[in-house]
Design brief:
alpha+beta, 205 residues, single chain, 4 helices
């Protein structure tokens, strides 16, 4: 009896610790207004808002980074913004936070801006190595309505990917096959033969 009680307590305690160190991620893509969304599509503008919720978010800092991969290798990492160096004012004030990501692809460049609750990033530009029409913004939800991440080990969490499609032998192509696969984002290039792409990550501190 004592053993069963101890096992039950251990299970409940482990579940409690897991919930404390887990964040829930949900998303809204584009605009709910069809006319506005049509204009965004016409002008090659991508907007995605990500919502974070977790018991341990309050009081944390976060860093948004962009990783650039070329021919299967990580070639550059850029910090889009980092609240850690901006004292306690920019610490998360609650257990919920929303970030809105803006991407605009133009000839040879992508323009990126990130807007948080309390601050926004600088508008930054990065060179494209494939025709800009080939790039598309994808998240990692697939058919899921939410994703859950463990934040206990302070690892970088992949949020979004700006990718070109994988090309099949018959000439057909697919973006979703890449983003909705079980392949780690850092391995997209080698596995799917994608020559150039970007990954957006978040790290909670």
């Amino acid at each position: 009896m004592k053993l069963k009680t101890a096992l039950l307590f251990a299970l409940l305690f482990s579940n409690f610790i897991f919930s404390q160190n887990t964040i829930k991620l949900t998303a809204n893509y584009g605009s709910e207004n069809n006319d506005i969304q049509n204009l965004l599509d016409f002008d090659d503008i991508y907007i995605e808002q990500l919502h974070f919720e977790g018991e341990n978010l309050k009081g944390k800092h976060y860093e948004i980074s962009l990783q650039e991969f070329t021919k299967g290798k990580l070639t550059h990492t850029y910090s889009l913004f980092d609240t850690y160096g901006n004292n306690d004012y920019f610490k998360l004030k609650s257990n919920k936070e929303s970030l809105k990501f803006f991407f605009k692809t133009t000839d040879k460049k992508v323009k990126i801006y990130v807007q948080g609750t309390q601050l926004g990033s600088k508008t930054v530009y990065f060179k494209l190595k494939s025709p800009f029409e080939d790039y598309a913004l994808k998240d990692f939800f697939g058919s899921k309505k939410e994703l859950n991440f463990d934040i206990s080990n302070n690892q970088e969490i992949p949020l979004l990917a700006l990718i070109t499609p994988t090309i099949h032998k018959d000439g057909s192509s697919s973006y979703c096959e890449v983003a909705q696969s079980d392949i780690k984002p850092e391995n997209f290039g080698t596995h799917f033969k994608i020559p150039h792409y970007f990954i957006i990550t978040i790290k909670l501190k």
